């Protein structure tokens, strides 16, 4: 977001005025998120919110923001309820159901999978949302052999993996974050189970600590670093120059969201909330994470990049629509 603001201001800002990014750390806590939002609104006088990061904190401020008619564009809150009954709330990322369904379509159409197992965290809304969406869609295309859950505290998955392996699925869907998925993939390899693993955007960065066990596996993501589109490569180069490291998908979504919000304010010709919201709804452009327009709910209509880990690097395997 700060990189985008820097570029926008260097190009003349919005209607001649610079934009300022004011940020507070919500610590992933719902109460902290509400306090941060209230401070941004009351003390800082923001005209638009690019946030929150997590679904839980975004849902915590949602009704307040709806009451305020605050223009809200979350880069990364994927829970389905974030934009429901909230005409002022938009998101740059795809939803959990959309992502889960797309992974199922990819497994069936691109990997020719006839059978699939699902292993997910029953205590996490993100993991649960993806798991259910994958199961529902794949059931239309093939057979779900296993639908197994675990808790956040679980660390030994050998028993459930052995049970799943007995049904010999073509693919296993693991919708969780890197720390947990890395352990599961390690145990799949340790047990010698021959199965293709597929994940969601929570896998982003898995090659850092788990490249050996993630080799050859797939996950859905918001963009691919190997995408040759100019907007993607220009962003990566600018980000690496600014921060000295490679940008994650969350960085790309924060960057896109800031540009979309700035363009909406510019199109509105003022800081009037109603006009900015109307302009956000008309978004139609090419960004790092794809060509973005918004549907009636404020959710993006966009393709999903399927990444394969090859030699410890991201390789764009396909772009798939979950429609």
Explain this structure.
This protein has 11 helices and 12 strands. By secondary structure, it is an alpha/beta fold. The chain has a 7-stranded mixed sheet. The radius of gyration is 20 Å and the shape is globular. 44% of the residues are buried.
Shape: globular
Low-confidence stretches: none
User: Helical element count?
Assistant: 11
Strand order of the largest sheet: 4-3-5-6-7-11-12
* Mean pLDDT metric: 95
Instruction: Report the C-alpha radius of gyration, rounded.
Output: 20 Å
Structural class: alpha/beta
End-to-end separation in angstroms reads 29 Å
Count of DSSP strands: 12
Q: Beta-strand level of the residues, as a percent range?
A: 15-25%
The quaternary organization reads as single chain
Largest sheet: 7 strands, mixed
Helix-strand string = HHHEEHEHEHEHEHEHHHEEEEE
The percent range for helix content is 40-55%
Short description:
The chain is α/β, with parallel strands linked by helices and 323 residues long. It has helices spanning 2-10, 30-42, 55-68, 96-109, 125-141, 158-165, 178-191, 206-214, 230-243, 249-268, 273-281, and strands at 72-74, 89-91, 115-121, 143-150, 171-173, 196-199, 218-221, 284-287, 290-294, 300-301, 304-310, 313-320. 44% of the residues lie in helices and 18% in strands.
